[in-house]
Specification:
This protein is α/β, with parallel strands linked by helices. It has one domain (2-123): Response regulator (Rossmann fold), CATH 3.40.50. It is built from 5 helices and 7 strands; from the N terminus they run E-H-E-H-E-E-E-H-E-H-E-H. The protein has helices at residues 12-21, 33-49, 68-77, 92-98, 112-123; strands at 2-5, 27-30, 54-57, 60-61, 66-67, 85-88, 106-109. A 5-stranded parallel beta sheet has the order 2-1-3-6-7. The chain has a two-stranded antiparallel ribbon with strand order 4-5. Helix 4 (92-98) links the parallel strand 6 and strand 7 (106-109). It is globular, with a radius of gyration of 14 Å.
Length: 125
């Protein structure tokens, strides 16, 4: 399962490529941190039992004053475990300047191709 915390409208080509190559994978879109928090709270038991659970998020959710580090803390609070989290951003340099010591489970991507390769690495298992 993929949890994508963003609008499906933001990268239609990448989403179509994932669906084309991994038709059986469910992509669960949550538009905001708050929606993702609700989803994770309601589905934590199911997520803990899944072999594959990958999260894709933005670096920052401005209207909520939340970032990818809040998502990591939410995973910890819910005891979901260390799951791969891809931060899809326009500037890796800016992100690393603000958060130089990334949590181990965080990988940062600017290009849709690199993000697809990351996702494929988990879905191909």
């Amino acid at each position: 399962m993929l949890l994508w915390i963003d609008s499906p409208e933001n990268d239609r080509m990448l989403i179509e490529e994932i669906k084309r190559n991994y038709a059986s994978v469910k992509i669960n879109f949550q538009l905001s941190y708050k929606e993702a928090q609700k989803f994770l709270n309601e589905n934590a038991d199911d997520i803990r039992q899944r072999e594959i659970f990958v999260t894709i998020c933005r670096a920052y959710y401005g209207s909520e004053s939340k970032s990818f580090t809040d998502i990591v803390r939410l995973f910890q609070r819910l005891a979901i475990g260390r799951r791969p989290i891809a931060v899809y951003t326009m500037s890796t340099i800016a992100l690393l300047q603000k958060t130089p010591n990334l949590p181990e489970e965080i990988k940062v991507f600017e290009s849709p191709e690199d993000l697809f390769d990351f996702i494929s690495g988990y879905l191909s298992k």
